[in-house]
Amino acid sequence: MNRFLSTVFGTLVTVALVWGGLPAYAQDAEAVAVSAEEDPYLQTCDLADRSRCHRFTKARQYYFELNPNATEEEWLDMERLLRPFTNPAKMAEIMADPGRMAKWMAGLSSPDAVHLMMRCSQEPIMWNTWMRTFTDPEIMMQAMLPFMNPLTYFKWAFAPIDPNVYAGFAPLADPKLYTAWGDKLAQPKYYEPLYSWMYPQWSIDRMAWAMNPETYGNMFVWWAQAFAYPTQSSITGSPSPNPDGS
Q1: 233 or 127, which is more confident
Q2: Does 241 map to a domain?
Q3: Domain range enclosing 16
């Protein structure tokens, strides 16, 4: 009997947490959708519904902190490299093509890309995006489609003789890449992702995220948008209604 009551109580608490978080996220999504067309943080967004794109405000901040003399064009190139991490369907599309995969991996070998991946993977806003995308049935179905295509395996079978693969890895032979690594490794700020957890506020912020009911509403945003809020279309992409996207 006690076990039954505990199960019922746990279920009710979970439903309350999720239900409490859904309206806030759905309303935030509508607010972002209004201004998404002119949002400077969505320049690399390639989705029809721009409100579903992740916004890289924190990543942009971290990039320019490490590269104060970098141009906006250089940042946009970096953002394009990072965007597949916010969209499983986009990542699957790249992984299905060995030539594109080689080019993407070569781009991610830069010290700036490695730094931003470490920094942003520690951000609750990034966790929100992952929770939303990896629990969205439509997004995950789109991510599986390339691996249901026999042509994908045909391409990979002939990858060793595909000139596009070797062309994609060409940047790894550029001496500038290793010069950049030497320069970044000499900067103390480059190592910040390794010790940021030592700051008390870092742990407090992440504990607050874990205790916030809206956090768990992330897993059901697709449901709220598809049924409760029909004006929000459910399309392939990485939803990030929160204007502070990392």
Answers
A1: 127
A2: no
A3: 2-228
